[in-house]
Amino acid sequence: MSDIEKKVEHEYDGSQIQVLEGLEAVRKRPGMYIGSTGPRGLHHLVYEIVDNSIDEALAGFCNHIEVFIKKGNIIEVRDNGRGIPVGIQPKLGLPAVTVVLTVLHAGGKFGGDNSGYKVSGGLHGVGSSVVNALSEWMEVFVYQNGIEHYQKFERGVPVCDLKEIGPADHTGTTIRFKADSEIFTETTDYEYDTLITRLREQSFLNAGVRITLTDERGAEDVNESMCYEGGIRSFVEYIHNVRKLEVAHDEVIFLRGTKDDAIAEVAFQYNDSYNELILSFANNIHTPDGGTHEQGFKNAITRVFNDFGRAKGYLKEKDANLTGNDVREGLTCIISVKLTNAEFEGQTKAKLGNTEIRGLVENLVYAKLTDFFEENPATAQAIYDKALSAARAREAAKRARDLVRRKSALENSRMPGKLADCREKDPTKTEIYIVEGDSAGGSAKMGRDSNIQAILPLWGKMINVEKARLDKIYGNEKMMPVVTALGCGMGEDFDLSKLRYHKVFIMADADVDGSHICCLMLTFFFRFMRPLIDGGHVYIAQPPLFKLAKGKDVRYAYTEEEMAKISAEMTQPKINRYKGLGEMNPEQLWETTMNPQNRVIVQISVEDAIKADEAFTILMGDKVAPRKEFIEKNAKYVKNLDI
What we know:
There is one protein chain. The protein contains 20 helices and 24 strands. By secondary structure, the chain is of the alpha+beta class. The strands form five sheets. Strands 1, 2, 5, 6, 7, 8, 9, 10 and 11 form a nine-stranded mixed beta sheet that branches. The N terminus and C terminus are likely disordered. Helix 4 packs antiparallel against helix 6, helix 9 runs parallel beside helix 11 and helix 13 crosses helix 18.
């Protein structure tokens, strides 16, 4: 082939530019619209449809939303709102309901005061059409003007025209769909607990709206109906009740304010833990990355504590100002704002960007919380006592941190003595294994790829950080080697850019003690190095439970089911149940648990802040009763392992 022919063959011209029409773009790049095609994205389909019904509730036309998980993992969402319009949309010449379900950026939420909705979570206008595009099939039933209308779609394409199929004695919309297994290749199985958590959240945020979830997949239906007249105040009470936390004051503080068309509500209460939990929402959409509404609250509450504290003598002239962390220790807070033209970052709406909302929330909290403290001096005293205690602990932590830094400088060595570092210096290419025990650590050091893998052995049980403040962690012989090795600090000093290894593995025995160590380490990362988890840097190594050998044929099994299957294939092999990592020689540990080509690993992520925070509080907190209740409830899922 000549040089000219080669040039023509690789020429990049207009013919190579693809134009994806209609919903093709959604099926081509589904992650852009729903975040992922794993379980998270699967459940997001349900949220998108429910959010549209919630918008009807916000507009004042709907008070009951029903969600069904039917056999075959078919989802059905019913509401008693006005029903999606069925009249002809002038521009496209199609029924409006067809346009809403097949055209991106089509909906009744763009027209300001003249639109169907003044306040809405689904402002991008892509939710329903995206669900349609990613479903094997979808059916819509619209009840309007005494008539039931029906249309069916397959992978976003209408297979029949909108038609009248009978009389209707009510109004509303029912959407039924089956997620497409061609898109959701990992699973199309919905988790009841995941859906009920989200739907309960929506019920709290919309006082007086009833939301019902029914799971019809089992021998008997599982059903829960939720309606909370107390709104977000009930949300705070629910969180404390579930976690069995002792509250620092009896009353949930509730603040509400408006400006133009925007509404802001804040409900919060302090408890006896050391952790803060702030959940923020905009137009009923959870904003896990916060935004202007959350920043306005944080700014205001810190100002109130310092200004009011000095005016009333809680803070003396010689005292330093309280920090944001001081005033938020042990705080459970719900922030909910509703506004027109909400500006979210991305289709998954993780962060609110409206600048005017910061001012609304900040002014509301500063003025009304100051008034509340004036009118409730006993409550103010209880809250200030907690904040001042947090400030003293912060100062103690600073002294402990400075002592650790001075000690490190004097020793002229910043790395823990037990750390076997790797040669590669590019953090994006390196990994560290935090290994339970010196014996397993020794095998890991000998079996590793020393070019990219570092080993840090730990011994014994480490401190439970759920029951300790930061000042108790600095200098702790179990935790500080981890902090020092990772290099990115912790708490307020945490800096992800200084992370020395982009993959952090927790490697412990596959037994109860090993699980406890994993839980303790994950609690530490979650509470004091949270960006490490959020950035996808934390993993659990999965050592095998069994070694099966027959002659020269050696295989490993990671579960009892896998062991039984392999045993049947090998026909009566010799089976060795590993009691711990220390029983493996370096070659076995490398081949089964550390070799990137063969290893089984679990990446740790925080899908839901409420559930994750709740789990750590229950499992690792001071209260025995909720932990016992959790164990009793979940014991049925534990198999009889030989441990």
